[in-house]
Design brief:
mainly alpha, UraD-like, 2 domains, 0% strand
Amino acid sequence: MPCFEPAPGSLSRDSFVSTFGRVYEHSPWIAEALFDQGLTSVHETLDGLASALRAIVGAGGEARQLALLRAHPDLAGKLAVAGKLTDESRGEQAGAGLDQCSPIEFARFQELNRRYTERFGFPFILAVKGKKRAEILAAFEARVLNGSAVEFRTALDQVHRIAYLRLSDLYR
Protein backbone atom coordinates (compact mmCIF):
# COMPACT_ATOMS: atom_id res chain seq x y z
CA MET A 1 0.00 0.00 0.00
CA PRO A 2 1.46 3.42 -0.95
CA CYS A 3 2.32 5.74 1.92
CA PHE A 4 4.62 8.47 3.04
CA GLU A 5 8.06 7.13 3.94
CA PRO A 6 8.87 7.66 6.67
CA ALA A 7 5.41 7.94 8.21
CA PRO A 8 4.59 11.56 9.15
CA GLY A 9 3.86 10.56 12.74
CA SER A 10 7.36 9.15 13.14
CA LEU A 11 9.02 12.48 12.26
CA SER A 12 10.23 15.08 14.70
CA ARG A 13 8.50 18.45 14.50
CA ASP A 14 11.47 19.95 12.65
CA SER A 15 11.57 17.08 10.14
CA PHE A 16 7.82 17.17 9.63
CA VAL A 17 7.84 20.94 9.00
CA SER A 18 10.91 20.65 6.77
CA THR A 19 9.18 17.98 4.68
CA PHE A 20 5.58 19.21 4.60
CA GLY A 21 5.98 22.91 5.36
CA ARG A 22 6.81 23.57 1.71
CA VAL A 23 3.57 22.09 0.42
CA TYR A 24 1.83 25.44 0.95
CA GLU A 25 3.97 28.22 -0.57
CA HIS A 26 6.02 30.08 2.08
CA SER A 27 3.54 28.96 4.76
CA PRO A 28 5.16 26.47 7.14
CA TRP A 29 2.68 27.56 9.82
CA ILE A 30 0.19 25.11 8.32
CA ALA A 31 2.44 22.07 8.84
CA GLU A 32 3.46 23.41 12.27
CA ALA A 33 -0.17 23.70 13.35
CA LEU A 34 -1.02 20.19 12.16
CA PHE A 35 1.98 18.69 13.94
CA ASP A 36 1.06 20.54 17.12
CA GLN A 37 -2.49 19.16 16.96
CA GLY A 38 -1.06 15.66 16.90
CA LEU A 39 -0.56 13.22 14.07
CA THR A 40 -2.38 9.91 13.74
CA SER A 41 -2.43 7.05 11.26
CA VAL A 42 -4.99 9.06 9.24
CA HIS A 43 -2.16 11.43 8.32
CA GLU A 44 -0.16 8.61 6.72
CA THR A 45 -2.38 8.61 3.63
CA LEU A 46 -2.29 11.20 0.88
CA ASP A 47 -5.94 12.14 1.25
CA GLY A 48 -5.80 12.10 5.04
CA LEU A 49 -2.82 14.42 5.22
CA ALA A 50 -4.16 16.70 2.47
CA SER A 51 -7.53 16.97 4.22
CA ALA A 52 -5.93 17.75 7.57
CA LEU A 53 -3.71 20.46 6.09
CA ARG A 54 -6.71 21.93 4.25
CA ALA A 55 -8.64 22.04 7.53
CA ILE A 56 -5.81 23.98 9.19
CA VAL A 57 -6.05 26.58 6.43
CA GLY A 58 -9.84 26.71 6.82
CA ALA A 59 -9.55 27.24 10.56
CA GLY A 60 -6.89 29.92 10.05
CA GLY A 61 -9.44 32.58 9.23
CA GLU A 62 -9.63 35.06 6.39
CA ALA A 63 -6.54 37.10 7.35
CA ARG A 64 -4.26 34.05 7.35
CA GLN A 65 -5.87 32.78 4.16
CA LEU A 66 -5.21 36.13 2.49
CA ALA A 67 -1.59 35.97 3.66
CA LEU A 68 -1.38 32.47 2.18
CA LEU A 69 -2.67 33.74 -1.16
CA ARG A 70 -0.23 36.64 -1.07
CA ALA A 71 2.65 34.20 -0.44
CA HIS A 72 2.28 32.90 -4.00
CA PRO A 73 4.32 34.33 -6.87
CA ASP A 74 2.92 35.84 -10.04
CA LEU A 75 2.84 33.45 -12.98
CA ALA A 76 5.65 34.30 -15.40
CA GLY A 77 6.35 37.27 -13.14
CA LYS A 78 9.27 39.23 -11.72
CA LEU A 79 10.38 36.50 -9.30
CA ALA A 80 10.55 33.98 -12.14
CA VAL A 81 12.61 36.36 -14.26
CA ALA A 82 14.94 37.04 -11.31
CA GLY A 83 15.29 33.31 -10.55
CA LYS A 84 13.78 33.75 -7.08
CA LEU A 85 10.93 31.23 -7.14
CA THR A 86 10.81 28.33 -4.72
CA ASP A 87 12.02 25.07 -6.25
CA GLU A 88 8.43 23.86 -6.33
CA SER A 89 7.07 26.94 -8.11
CA ARG A 90 9.98 27.01 -10.55
CA GLY A 91 9.36 23.38 -11.53
CA GLU A 92 5.61 23.89 -11.86
CA GLN A 93 5.92 27.03 -13.97
CA ALA A 94 8.64 25.51 -16.16
CA GLY A 95 6.56 22.35 -16.61
CA ALA A 96 3.77 24.53 -18.01
CA GLY A 97 6.22 26.29 -20.32
CA LEU A 98 5.93 29.63 -18.57
CA ASP A 99 9.69 30.01 -18.73
CA GLN A 100 9.44 29.91 -22.54
CA CYS A 101 6.88 32.66 -23.17
CA SER A 102 7.12 34.63 -26.37
CA PRO A 103 7.55 38.39 -25.83
CA ILE A 104 3.84 38.85 -26.60
CA GLU A 105 2.79 36.16 -24.12
CA PHE A 106 5.14 37.53 -21.48
CA ALA A 107 3.71 41.04 -21.91
CA ARG A 108 0.17 39.62 -21.63
CA PHE A 109 1.06 37.80 -18.41
CA GLN A 110 2.56 41.01 -17.00
CA GLU A 111 -0.56 43.00 -17.85
CA LEU A 112 -2.89 40.36 -16.40
CA ASN A 113 -0.75 40.04 -13.26
CA ARG A 114 -1.00 43.81 -12.75
CA ARG A 115 -4.77 43.98 -13.35
CA TYR A 116 -5.51 40.94 -11.23
CA THR A 117 -3.42 42.06 -8.25
CA GLU A 118 -4.87 45.57 -8.39
CA ARG A 119 -8.38 44.15 -8.43
CA PHE A 120 -8.07 41.41 -5.80
CA GLY A 121 -5.04 42.27 -3.68
CA PHE A 122 -3.30 38.95 -4.23
CA PRO A 123 -1.68 37.23 -7.22
CA PHE A 124 -3.49 35.04 -9.71
CA ILE A 125 -3.15 31.44 -8.54
CA LEU A 126 -3.69 28.42 -10.72
CA ALA A 127 -2.42 24.87 -10.35
CA VAL A 128 -0.48 24.88 -13.62
CA LYS A 129 0.79 21.30 -13.53
CA GLY A 130 -0.35 19.61 -16.74
CA LYS A 131 -1.54 22.85 -18.34
CA LYS A 132 -0.20 24.77 -21.35
CA ARG A 133 0.41 28.51 -21.62
CA ALA A 134 -2.68 29.16 -23.77
CA GLU A 135 -4.89 27.33 -21.28
CA ILE A 136 -3.37 29.30 -18.39
CA LEU A 137 -3.85 32.63 -20.18
CA ALA A 138 -7.48 31.76 -20.96
CA ALA A 139 -8.16 30.96 -17.28
CA PHE A 140 -6.38 34.17 -16.26
CA GLU A 141 -8.44 36.28 -18.67
CA ALA A 142 -11.70 34.72 -17.45
CA ARG A 143 -10.96 34.91 -13.73
CA VAL A 144 -9.83 38.54 -13.72
CA LEU A 145 -13.52 39.32 -14.37
CA ASN A 146 -14.79 37.43 -11.29
CA GLY A 147 -16.21 39.12 -8.22
CA SER A 148 -13.98 39.38 -5.16
CA ALA A 149 -15.67 36.70 -3.04
CA VAL A 150 -15.78 34.21 -5.90
CA GLU A 151 -12.15 34.82 -6.77
CA PHE A 152 -10.97 34.57 -3.16
CA ARG A 153 -12.61 31.13 -2.90
CA THR A 154 -11.34 30.08 -6.35
CA ALA A 155 -7.78 31.14 -5.54
CA LEU A 156 -7.89 29.30 -2.22
CA ASP A 157 -9.20 26.17 -3.96
CA GLN A 158 -6.28 26.42 -6.41
CA VAL A 159 -3.84 26.74 -3.49
CA HIS A 160 -5.25 23.51 -2.08
CA ARG A 161 -4.94 21.85 -5.51
CA ILE A 162 -1.28 22.91 -5.71
CA ALA A 163 -0.69 21.57 -2.20
CA TYR A 164 -2.33 18.27 -3.10
CA LEU A 165 -0.16 17.90 -6.19
CA ARG A 166 2.96 18.68 -4.16
CA LEU A 167 1.94 16.14 -1.53
CA SER A 168 1.38 13.60 -4.31
CA ASP A 169 4.98 14.10 -5.36
CA LEU A 170 6.09 13.18 -1.82
CA TYR A 171 3.82 10.14 -1.62
CA ARG A 172 5.25 6.73 -2.48
